[in-house]
Specification:
The protein has about 150 residues and is mainly α. About 65% of the residues lie in helices and about 0% in strands.
Length: about 150
């Protein structure tokens, strides 16, 4: 497990990658602007991302379990309902959609390198350590859940 596992909040990872994408876009700027269709797509991803994050966090609150991603060991219940029936990590999926919208806003092909970087960083620094702790805590129920529901989508 990496030394930084569970120490950098996912929102900080998002912001670091977004800043990196902005620097890349500025550095390799082509001067292109996005079209109305790209603007609509941007808004679609922003709304979808925020909605997914909101619904996922509300589900955790409703199930009376922790929403703190830095300490998944505090989870009191294995949440498998709602969006968690389709993705084991809907909050991170929502963050990815926000980053995708940011990439559209930047209108930079080169900045899209931040998208797989985000997926890698969140997977290594957050998801894998979370999975280890949740597996230890919930045992075969969590193993069965992982077999039935994909990590991202």
């Amino acid at each position: 497990m990496p030394k930084l596992a569970l120490k950098i909040p996912p929102l900080a990872v998002l912001l670091l990658v977004a800043v990196l994408m902005g620097v890349i876009a500025r550095w390799l700027d082509t001067g292109e602007t996005y079209s109305t269709w790209q603007g609509l797509l941007l808004m679609l991803f922003v709304v979808a991302g925020l909605t997914i994050i909101g619904v996922a966090v509300f589900t955790l609150y409703k199930m009376e379990t922790t929403v703190d991603p830095r300490n998944p060991g505090l989870s009191t219940k294995l949440v498998t309902v709602g969006l968690y029936n389709y993705s084991r990590n809907p909050v991170y999926l929502g963050l990815f959609l926000l980053l995708l919208a940011w990439n559209i806003h930047l209108s930079s092909f080169y900045a899209c390198a931040g998208l797989p970087l985000f997926i890698w960083a969140i997977t290594q620094l957050q998801i894998v350590p979370e999975e280890q702790q949740l597996g230890d805590k919930f045992g075969t129920d969590y193993i069965d859940y992982c077999a039935a529901v994909r990590r991202w989508l």
